Amino acid sequence: MSSNPGISEKTPHLLVLGMGGTIAGLAPNPEESPLQYKAGQVGVDALVAQVQSVVPEGVRLVSRQIANINSRNLTEAHLTSLGLAVIEALLDVAIKGIVITHGTDTIEETGLFLQVTCGKLAQTQSKRVILTGAMLPSNAPKADGPSNLLDALRWASTSIDNFPGGIYAVMDGRGCMAMDLAKRHATALNAPLQNAPSSSVGLINPSWLSGVKAVQAAWNEDLPIPKEGEWPWVEILTSHAGARPETITHWLGSAVQGFILAGSGQGGFHDDWVKPLDQAMVQDIALVRTTRTGAGATLRNIPELDRPGCCPSGSLTAPRARIALQLALNAEKQANKAGKPLTWQDFFARIADLPEIR
Ligand code: SIN
Question: 303 preceded by cis ω (within 30°)?
Answer without folding.
Answer: yes
